[in-house]
Amino acid sequence: MSADSCGGKVALRNLVNSINCIRDRVRDGESNESDGAFNLSNFWDTLNQAVKAVSQEATKLSLAFSKPPLPSQQDGEKLAESIMKSILTLSTVYYWLPKSQGLALRRLVRDATVEVLEGVAQLVEVIMSSPVESLSQEQLMSTGGVWSACDQFPQLSKDNKAAVVVVLLCEVRVVKDAIEEIEQALAEGEDPFNDVLDDNQDGDEPRGNQDMYWSENDRQVIGACQGLIKAAAACLRKLKSAVKSNGDFSTPQNVSQLDDLADISKEISPGVDDLALCLYPPMDYNGVETNVCKLAALLKKVLEIIRSSHVCGESELTWVQFLDGAIDHNLQKAKDLIQQES
């Protein structure tokens, strides 16, 4: 390899640091708020063009370093300058999106932009460390990673209402998984650790440690907790439908209400997970009661925020009131069963 072609890679060293600095600013920075009218459609058109340019520049860079002879130092500098220009444009367009368009939307666009920047930085690092003789598998994968990160932009939610629906859909899936895990553990019989620990057992004799098994009262407590977790899942499903049907982002107040609904809803799955973890034997009744009360209080708060938001019409009020009663019922049932055990 000639000294001049070595210089082509040398020109990329500063590029990685610059990309990482821009990534950090995008991740932590604030938008450029303006008093003028903001055209969301124009923003998306410009953003998609900027993303496409980054993808093209990344491809050009990868091809240039895919086989000998490598670019000279001068050519390497030109490539680095060109890809840096596309990245600066992308980050600048991202900053155009004001928080007044919705925090859920802005987080979605921010995370997608950061993913592109991280992908390009990784590609440059791989190019610098790859041998000259051939295009490495790692370089191919890194190039594909940039393409994948860029290709997701046309599919992103285009407004705050759609972005909040995405948040709620993710929460629904997480809570659904928790419900299925509990049901699977109960269906496996008295020993929920059977599939985890069986490989370590010699012979067919059952384990004698009763701390690994549920008592009958344990199972009744689990039933009450399942009722509460299912109420959480129903709340998220119903809220998702209400946002899709009634959600509005034409006024600052409604945009803010959508963000409030998204933020409070994201607290549900961690609360469900905390409760579910307490249910495995040996069951910690104090922990179960604490987490049952916390989850019930959180769900009550969620329902109150739904009730006072613009997504709650007369038909929504019916299920809000029903779930409010279901939460009270399952909370009291769990507390009574725990009290019996103590």
Q: Any overview of this molecule?
A:
By secondary structure, the chain is an all-alpha fold. The protein has helices at 3-28, 40-64, 73-96, 103-129, 137-151, 160-187, 194-197, 216-246, 252-265, 268-278, 285-307, 314-341. Helix 4 packs antiparallel against helix 5. The chain is built from 12 helices and no strands. It folds into 2 domains: 3-155, Up-down Bundle (A middle domain of Talin 1), CATH 1.20.1420.10; 161-188 and 212-340, I/LWEQ domain (Up-down Bundle). The model is unreliable at 1-5 (pLDDT under 50). The relative contact order is 0.09. Helices cover 75% and strands 0% of the residues. It is elongated, with a radius of gyration of 27 Å.
